[in-house]
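User: Sequence in, structure out. Go.
Assistant: Echoing your sequence, followed by the structure tokens.
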Amino acid sequence: MREDGRSGCPINATIEVIGDRWTLLVLRDVMFGNRRYFRELLAGSEEGIASNILSDRLKRLVAAGLLSREDAGPGRKAEYRLTEAAIELVPIMAHLGSWGLRHRETTHRLRVRAQLLEEGGPQLWEEFMDELRELHLGTPRPDPAAPRASERLAAAYAAAAGTNG
């Protein structure tokens, strides 16, 4: 099932889709920041992504099947939504965050979500993925009365943003 990749290795095939310096950050901002529009992604980028790079990465993510783009009518903004394939990257994002907590210098404000995901483990990841499926795919959460993982992540971030760092 090789499609013009360097090899048939699954790790290589994954890296060819998400392995550049901006792709995972765009996905992070859609996943954890619920940013769905070009301007939101551009304005909310912690790392200061350039508009031409963002445009390119959004096109690539749509072509790779990680984002869907709802065609906007005249005078409307295009909306980007995560696909199931992108939602299934949540555990990868959690592991990347955990690695960064241990091996890289980070700020308190930007590390709290990674800490919460690490502490919550696979159960929290599944809850968050269920929530993303509801938000982006329209699939109801198994337990609609359960607390939302995104609310816990947002509360941790807001609390950290109130501190210095």
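User: And one key feature?
Assistant: The chain has a mean pLDDT of 91.
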